[in-house]
Amino acid sequence: MFPKKGHGKAKVSVHETGKSRGSYVAEQCFDPSGTGTWTLLGVGTGKARWVSAASGTKVWVRFAAVRGQLQSGWCTPVLVTIP
Q1: Contact 45, 75 (CB under 8 A)
Q2: d(Cα 11, Cα 8) in Å, to the nearest integer?
Q3: For a pLDDT cut of 70, what percent of the chain falls above it?
Q4: Would you kindly state where each structural domain of the chain is located, as residue ranges?
Q5: Contact 61, 25 (CB under 8 A)
Q6: Is the separation of the CB atoms in 58 and 80 below 8 Å?
Q7: Given a cut of 60, is residue 2 above it in pLDDT?
Q8: Using one digit for the tens of pLDDT, what is the confidence trace for 36-57?
Q9: CB 82 within 8 A of CB 56
Q10: Residue 54 — φ and ψ, nearest 5°?
């Protein structure tokens, strides 16, 4: 995932190799240490999502591939600091 800067928001996306254009589900969590709750991040199935929060907020983001009714396991969560 490669965050792109913006004030109070960051765009995160799945890094795909080749020409594949998969569908994805994304979640965010403010404290994944066991006490945090993962919540759906945006609507849609594309490879990019916007994360909005106060500047300086640290948000963990994870993606999973979706094909039909099947979903892969979650990728390793990535920490994004909102600019």
Answers
A1: no
A2: 11
A3: 87
A4: 4-81
A5: no
A6: yes
A7: no
A8: 799 998 767 788 999 999 989 9
A9: yes
A10: -65, 145
